[in-house]
Specification:
Chain lengths: ~270, ~625
Amino acid sequence: MSRSTAFQFRSGNSFFHRLDPLTKFAWLLAISLLAFGAYIAWVQILITIAVLFTAFMLARLSLRVVFRSTWLFGVACLSFLVIQTLTLPGSHVAFHLLGHPIYAESADYALASALRIYTIILSSLVFVRTTDPRELAIALVTQMKVPYRIAYAFFIALRIIPTIEEEIKTIHAAQAVRGVVRERSVAGRIGETKRYAMPLLVGSLRKASMMVMSMEARAFGAYPQRTFVEAPHMSASGVAVCAVMLVLVFAWYAALGFGYVHTFYVLSA
Amino acid sequence: MALVAADCPADTAALRSTEATMAPTSATQDGMALTDARSASDLAIDFRNVSYAYEGEQEEVLSNVSLTVRDGEFVLILGPSGCGKSTLLQLLNGTIPHTLKGRLEGEVSVCGKPILSTRIASFATEVGMVFQDPDAQIINTRVRDEVCFGLENLCRPAPEILERQREALDFVGLGGFGDRSIFDLSGGQKQRVSIAAVLATRPRLLVLDEPTANLDPAGMAEIFAVLERLNRDAGTTIVMVEHRVDELADRVSRVLMMDRGSIVFDGTPREAFSQRRAAHSEENATIPTSAWFPQACEFALALGDRLGMPVDASGMPLNVDQAVAFADRCIATAVATMAPPAAELTYSSATDGPAFLRVSQLGFGYEKDRPILSGISFNLGRGEMIALCGRNGSGKTTLARLLMHINTPPRGTIWLEGKDVADLSAREISSEIGYVFQNPDHQFVTDHVWDEVAYGLNVRNYADNAIEERVGEVLDIVDLKRYRDRSPFSLSLGERRRLSVATMLVLEPHLLVLDEPTIGQDHERAQQLMGLMARLRERYRTTILMITHDVRLIAEWAARALVISGGRLLFDGSPEAMFADERLIAEAGLLTPPVYEISKALAAKHPGSLLQPTLSVPVLVDSIGRMEGRIA
């Protein structure tokens, strides 16, 4: 009955939903590499626009979902931007704010850093919302040749996170009814964790042993391999996405390596 | 998506190494029935002098059990908590002794295979296991994946797996559900998925451990209908531990009763329920087995006693129709001339003094456009016993949580002793309202039983001697004083439940909310808990609000019922009036208790008589007994 977490898989039929998990993972990795390499604001702005386009158009996420999932990070990035802009040194004064000089270099760098964090959070959201953990686990087995027991361990871990979250909420409510008030001090918080841990542990162990029985009874682990009825495979669009991302990453780092970006940057500044 | 038949091993020898036979694995098998793996023997289960103790424990959970079950039987196992029934089920696919170690004596063969030398995995095609909690046993997030899981592990070819998956889902009535997410299903649907997931391997034996304990009546009916069909049409042998005997008594072919690790009764359902016996609870108290008798049998036994005609096993009714016919044989067609039956025998009037809790036009939702509750209004008086009913997800738990300020209610909608609940803190409310959660473990906050009960008083700064006195008194009431220095987690479930009630009780609340007191509990434990509630009510005039869809609990204990559906209060009145309204009962996802059906049918058959629909077996027996001209 409680609100569901926004940062979890939702089935859908968007372009991104239809891509195989490995392609999406490659996309996420490429976006992260691009974002990490880009310390110039206008490049970061381009990347952010590209990721926003992907989120809204290719993954069909609603504005509300994006806002609900990322606003907290957005606020953090914004404060990061303000602090860095005010504190980093620079040489070209862009303008004065309340008598305080604001340097073009520091503002540029601060904007790039803040957007970098936001872009990575946003692209992770796109990945998580459109990728079924089970498909990812299967892709690990069939495409990356990871042993299936390990892939399933990963999948089950993701599968039970919402259950545990739900249980923590219930324990919190159950203890509030007892007159337990939320602690503010560090020592109090540690004591609180201990109180939560015991019931949670007892419940989780019971659930885990039930899962073991349920899996063993259905021959999980009987053979070194198993059939996967529906294994994802990379489609033509998947190959295209991977190729584009590869070219972009390669081009960007090559440009960095040969010093072109710096030249553009100095020229434009 | 593509169909990929992964390169499954030729080395089935690895699996065969320790076992005598292996179920056929070829894909060329025909698809005639859900059970196609037959061994030479027609004994599905063969236990000879089996004793078992868990690893590191001295006491035997099973002692000297001998049992044979033939193919095609439908066996119901009954017994109090801790009697060894779940342990017995765990032996049936080798979970004991292969996963749960321990000391096992005697011989156990299942489907012709000795369990000691057969791996669990090779039982996968012969024994299907279904457990109580659907959320713990479902591994995958999509229905189809869950049903394919077992066959994928067995390395069957993909086309065969998909075919069997379709067949199994069709069988449990979830044909179009393959692509659904597990999280979007109701409890009953999830359990049907669990059953389909084991049916896909076409087991010869289906083993179920309280499969409906977490379900509402509608979900329970779905499961039992599937099981009946499976046993009748596909010939699957079923062994099941379950407490809902009302719906099962006329469906099963055999009943086993267990007590303290032994089988104390083995026979037909009629024989099983024709005689009152006694068993022992986990705390070693004697409890009557009638705690898990079908109400039809309870009625027949009581009527037999009243009329001085002992009922023999062959005449014992197992369902409503048979009970009506049975009563008819006892009633002469002559019209009764007696005084009206004492319908007031067990029910006191609903209200007692002015309301101390008022709910007025309460609406609530996490999101504006999706209200969970709307326009709810009612009052609660002191000393009432009220059932709050409705389907899973109807908003009843949300309502109870708003009363407690676990969720914040809108201002001006809930008034406790004239104060707006929205202005009170959870701690202030908890001295007026106690809330007993489903799982008692969630509520424990200290390491000792005594401290646990004292906690509520400590945080409210009571004087030491007052704490000493009140904690002692409350522990006496719940009979836990002897465990004062034990950890709450070391107690049995029944004891933990009583302890969680005690922690609420010590604050002498005016209202005690019980969240699903019978879910995951046996009937006798629920009865004990309700007995405790009745004592409280007498002693402190505590109002008891129980969130439940257990119709026998409502019939037996509640004097007033509230029904919520789709976030609205549909009904506020007596349980009799509620059960009389068929549309309301359907809306609330409830069933009517057998005694109500029996009395209603009898009243209709004997129009002029003073028989009336009632919720109480003694009232019905009394009114029949007082009719004139009764002859067998």
